[in-house]
Structures are given as C-alpha cells and as structure tokens.
Design a protein that fits this description.
Homodimer. Keywords: ATP-binding, Glutamine amidotransferase, GMP biosynthesis, Ligase, Nucleotide-binding, Purine biosynthesis. This is GMP synthase [glutamine-hydrolyzing]. The protein has about 325 residues and is of the alpha/beta class. The chain folds into two domains: about 190 residues, Rossmann fold; about 100 residues, GMP Synthetase, Chain A, domain 3, CATH 3.30.300.10. Helix 1 packs across helix 7, helix 2 packs across helix 7 and helix 4 packs antiparallel against helix 5. Bound molecules: xanthosine-5'-monophosphate.
C-alpha cells in the first residue's frame, strides 16, 4: 500500500541521515522477520556499507539457514558474512541436559562467534553502527530509552555485550509486528521469512528435552518440517500462533513400524493460539490434520514411533517445553 511505501521510504531516509555518507554498519540476522526487515531497510539506505552477519548455530529448522543465505540475499542484495558454527555449538552443548544451562551456553557461544565475525569485518575498516530490529512494543516495555543494545538479551540469542561500543540503528522502533510484516512485503522479502511464526533464539536446542546431539537435531528437524508443511497446507498458519514440535529424546517406548518391533522416541505437537505469547490456549486443530501429521511423521521419521498432543493452556504450562 502507499502508506506502507511511505513508511518504508521515511525509515530508509532516516537511516541515511543517521549513518551519514561514510558510516558503516553491521547487523546480525537470526532468520526472523525483525532483523531481516531492519537489515533490508538499512541496505536500501547505505548499500554495501552494511554487512550482515549470520551465525548458523545449527539449531534452526529445515530450510531456514538456506532462506537467509540464498533467498534473503537474492531479494535484498545484502552483503552477508556467514559463519557456520554448528560444530562449535554442538561441542559446547555436549552432555548438557539442563535447559537454563543450554540457554546460557548458546547465548555465550553466539556472542563469541559474533565478536569474531565482527573483528574480521572491522579489519576492513571501522564500523560505527549496529542495526537492531527493535519494535515499538519492545521500546515501550523497556521504558522508551534509547541506546539500549540489550533490550531483549534475556530472551534473544542476538543480545550483545555492553562493551561493544556501537551507536544503534533501529529502523523499526515505531512499528508494530503487523507493520513490520507489511514493510517486509513492500521490501520484497521471501514470504516464508515475512510470515514466520515466533521461534526462539536458542532454536531447536530447547525443543529437545535432554542432550542436544546432531542425530537428535536431524530427527526433530524432519518431524518439525512435516508438521509445518501439513499445518500450512491446511491453511492454519494465521490461526495458529505457533506449533513447537518437541523431541522427548530421553523417553523411549515400544512400537511396531512395518513388521518390526521398535523402541523409538515420542514427539509432542504443541499447537497454540495466542495474542502475545503471555497467555495461550491449545489449538483445536482438526483431527484429520492431526492424523496426517502423525501418520507422516511415524512413516517418514524412522526414529519416532509415537506422536502426542499437548492439551495444556498457558498458564500453567509454557509454550515451549525446554
Ligand atoms: P514460553 O515458552 O515462555 O514462550 O511460553 C513464550 C514465547 O517466547 C518464545 N521464546 C523465545 N523467543 N528467544 C526468543 O526470541 C528465546 O530465547 C525464547 N524462548 C521462548 C516462545 O517461542 C513463545 O513464542
């Protein structure tokens, strides 16, 4: 729409003024819509003086890393610095089962990897600006102050340490989520990114109950992809807030798949409806959709022999299992 076009043009112009004719900026991409839209706006404003950093921690869902590295780059022409850190995150997570410990490790490794990338980028010349996808509700929640690089650090992998002395560029500061999505469409971003449902920064790392290993991530990625595909096909993407798929990696139960007795893992489907994730209800997904998801997962993912549905509202349960 023309109003959204104006909003985007104004934001791009404001970034151009703030960064000036020679300033350089970096922006961390998470795969989510906020950082993608913020980066696309800044790219429009200053072109290759923006470098985006994508730390692939190996905990994203199927196709999401490719979405950033291929589709997003093709759509925006952004200068992208990719760090494939999957092995590093896996070794750091080896043997860890406590969810808070996992979150700490993922956050810590993320900052270290980001800092290394940033040092490499700054070896080519100084960088004064850090782009963040802070939205209006985040600004309000944090008291409206400026220059706070850590607004969401407790919740987001993108939180950066205080000692990075950057001036913040926050082109989404006046926008609500639905406006950010509209801006993303206006900017021609991949629809899968623009319409992505909420997904935690620590990713699949907190959707495996138990130790995170490469094999378990692969199992969960396949099961999750099937659930997402079937929910989308049924036209439920807008109705459902999000649907975590959780691997109970330390639980096994007996099953029969083909002619064989199996001793496999259950996965949990956690479809919820919500306005803001503070409270949620379990979604009444039609039985035939649930049946297709269950049949496909147990047919296509060898290690999974049971699919169960979470029927709990929030509170008392949270949306994620962890
Ligand atoms: P819970 O599980 O607390 O989740 O009911 C509430 C919402 O927050 C999302 N979530 C996160 N989002 N970084 C994020 O950006 C995180 O570390 C994180 N942990 C949970 C969750 O998916 C749900 O939408």
């Amino acid at each position: 729409s023309w109003t959204m076009l104006n909003i985007v043009e104004d934001a791009v112009e404001a970034v151009r003024r703030q960064v000036g004719p020679n300033g350089r900026a970096i922006c961390g991409l998470s795969g989510g819509v906020d950082s993608a839209v913020a980066a696309a706006m800044v790219q429009r404003a200053i072109g290759d003086r923006l470098t985006c950093v994508f730390v692939d921690h190996g905990l994203l869902r199927k196709g999401e890393a490719e979405q950033v590295e291929k589709d997003f780059v093709a759509a925006t022409g952004v200068d992208l610095h990719v760090v494939d850190a999957a092995e590093r995150f896996l070794s750091a997570l080896a043997g860890v089962t406590d969810p808070e410990e996992k979150r700490k490790i993922i956050g810590r490794e993320f900052i270290r990897v980001f800092e290394e990338a940033q040092r490499e980028i700054m070896a080519e010349g100084p960088v004064e600006f850090l782009v963040q996808g802070t939205l209006y509700p985040d600004v309000v929640e944090s008291g409206g102050g400026t220059g706070t690089a850590n607004i969401k650090s407790h919740h987001n992998v993108g939180g950066l340490p205080e000692d990075m002395k950057f001036e913040l560029v926050e082109p989404l500061r006046t926008l609500f989520k639905d406006e950010v999505r509209q801006a993303g469409e206006e900017l021609g971003l991949p629809p899968a990114m623009v319409w992505r449902q909420p997904f935690p920064g620590p990713g699949l790392g907190i959707r495996i109950v138990g130790e995170v290993t490469k094999e378990r991530l692969d199992i969960l990625r396949e099961a999750d992809a099937i659930a997402r595909e079937e929910l989308s096909r049924a036209g439920l993407d807008r109705e459902i807030w999000q649907c975590p798929v959780v691997l109970l990696a330390d639980v096994r139960s007996v099953g029969v798949q083909g002619d064989e007795r199996t001793y496999g893992h259950p996965v949990v489907l956690r479809p919820v409806s919500s306005e803001d994730a503070m409270t949620a209800d379990w979604s009444r997904v039609p039985y035939d959709v649930l049946a297709r998801i269950s049949t496909r997962i147990t047919n296509e993912v060898r290690e999974v022999n049971r699919v169960v549905l979470d029927l709990t509202s929030k509170p008392p349960a949270t949306i994620e299992w962890e």
